[in-house]
């Protein structure tokens, strides 16, 4: 047991540091996410060797947080309502992915990158972070309303679905991925079919356990982790998307609200580590040579992504289009996965890799701040605030 004492101490120190910096971030009017990102940067990049926490341990627990976070969103999201009231999202989000990928890809080709690599990086720019979007819609200090939150969540999750399919095709064309794109689509369909079957069975299991709180909680957590794991390991689907689909399995169950309520404390604790792990990726030394790439990706995101989202949200008649565009103006976890594949294969330079990772960190923090600004246009035609009592306190 003694050999595990140091990792436990390190993990406790990470949580304490996150709490302290998160508190001071909020005291100066910033979201706590900024503090969590700073913990990752300081603990993993600036501390001397020998005093750094166990990075693999933090990454594993961060993945658990992502899974529980998206699993809870799947439980809460009303797909029928989304289809009825936000039908324009079904076209706008996939179109935004395609347009942003094309524009960013063309610019990167002009800057000298091969077409296949440029398109994969263009997709990195096009994707937002589901984890950040969920935090935006859960924060106590948010200025979104229920309609805008549904739009943000729906847009982000449709991005994930479109990005998985497009990413499979691009990696197959680039020949970095081992999966055939048609096989990727078939696997996605099979996993969805498995989820439909589980949706017929699993709610009854939870119903039988409703009088046993401990067993109910254990089975709920197991459902999220196993669903995400099976989707990723067996069907090759990203953990976040697989966890969301697993949440949909019990979304229509009478026990969905109870499952979500019991999961919230675990979700919040583990998901903090996601932002810590993002901050840990930023290498200050490599970043010095990648500042040009960072500036390029930031400009591409603002012009080819934020602008396109605002345009499509306006055309689709969505409420608060500027707030939707701002809330989605960050690079996400799927972007990190894609650029890491390219970097591991030697198709992007360390400077470009560092520049994109810095962009991910910068845009996560900036969007979390900007979406809370009291811009008058964000509340046009809708209420300024709404009752937060029905929503859990977010980490941001």
What this model shows, in words?
- By secondary structure, this protein is mainly α.
- It has a single domain, classed as Na+/H+ antiporter like fold, CATH 1.20.1530.
- Helix content is 74%, strand content 0%.
- The chain is globular.
User: pLDDT below 50 for ≥5 consecutive residues: which ranges?
Assistant: 379-396
Would you report the number of β strands? 0
Secondary-structure element series: HHHHHHHHHHHHHHHHH
Largest sheet: none
- Gross geometry: globular
What is the count of distinct domains?
Answer: 1
> For the record, what CATH class applies?
Mainly Alpha
Beta fraction of the residues?
under 5%
Helix-and-strand structural type: mainly alpha
CATH architecture: Up-down Bundle
- Compute the CA-based radius of gyration: 20 Å
Question: Helix amount, in percent?
Answer: over 70%
Overall mean pLDDT stands at 80
CATH topology: Na+/H+ antiporter like fold
What distance separates the N and C termini?
35 Å
Q: What is the count of DSSP helices, taking H or I runs of 4+ residues?
A: 17
Layout of strands and helices, then pairs:
Elements: H1 5-27, H2 32-46, H3 55-76, H4 79-85, H5 89-110, H6 115-126, H7 130-138, H8 146-174, H9 181-208, H10 213-233, H11 239-249, H12 256-280, H13 284-289, H14 291-315, H15 321-327, H16 333-344, H17 350-370
Helix pairs in contact: 1-2, 2-12, 3-10, 3-11, 3-12, 5-6, 5-8, 5-14, 6-8, 6-16, 7-8, 8-9, 9-10, 9-11, 10-11, 14-15, 14-17, 16-17
């Amino acid at each position: 047991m003694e050999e595990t004492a140091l990792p436990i101490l390190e993990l406790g120190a990470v949580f304490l540091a996150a709490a302290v910096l998160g508190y001071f971030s909020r005291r100066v009017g910033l979201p706590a996410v900024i503090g969590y990102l700073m913990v990752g940067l300081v603990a993993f990049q600036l501390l001397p060797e020998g005093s750094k926490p166990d990075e693999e341990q933090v990454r594993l627990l961060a993945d658990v947080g992502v899974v529980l976070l998206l699993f809870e969103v799947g439980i809460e999201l009303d797909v029928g309502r989304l289809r009825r009231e936000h039908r324009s999202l079904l076209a706008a989000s996939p179109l935004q992915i395609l347009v942003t990928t094309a524009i960013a890809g063309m610019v990167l080709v002009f800057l000298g990158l091969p077409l296949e690599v440029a398109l994969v990086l263009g997709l990195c720019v096009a994707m937002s972070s589901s984890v950040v979007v969920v935090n935006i819609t859960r924060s106590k200090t948010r200025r979104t309303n229920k309609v805008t939150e549904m739009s943000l969540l729906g847009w982000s999750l449709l991005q994930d679905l479109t990005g998985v399919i497009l990413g499979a095709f691009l990696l197959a064309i680039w020949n970095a991925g081992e999966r055939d794109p048609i096989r990727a689509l078939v696997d996605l369909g099979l996993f969805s079919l498995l989820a439909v079957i589980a949706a017929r069975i699993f709610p009854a299991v939870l119903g039988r356990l409703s009088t046993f709180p401990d067993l109910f909680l254990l089975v709920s957590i197991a459902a999220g982790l196993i669903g995400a794991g099976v989707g990723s390991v067996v069907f090759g689907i990203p953990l976040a998307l697989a966890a969301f689909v697993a949440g949909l399995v019990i979304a229509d169950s009478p026990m969905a609200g109870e499952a979500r309520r019991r999961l919230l404390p675990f979700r919040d604790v583990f998901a903090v580590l996601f932002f810590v792990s993002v901050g840990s990726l930023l290498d200050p030394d490599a970043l010095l040579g990648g500042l040009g790439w960072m500036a390029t990706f930031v400009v591409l995101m603002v012009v080819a992504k934020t602008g396109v989202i605002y345009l499509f949200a306006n055309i689709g008649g969505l409420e608060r289009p500027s707030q939707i565009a701002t809330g989605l103006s960050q690079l996400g976890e799927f972007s990190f996965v894609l650029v890491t594949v390219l970097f591991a294969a030697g198709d992007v330079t360390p400077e470009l890799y560092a520049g994109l990772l810095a962009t991910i960190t910068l845009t996560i923090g900036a969007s979390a701040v900007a979406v809370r600004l009291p811009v008058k246009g964000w509340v046009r035609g809708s209420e300024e605030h709404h009752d937060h009592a029905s929503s859990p306190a977010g980490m941001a």
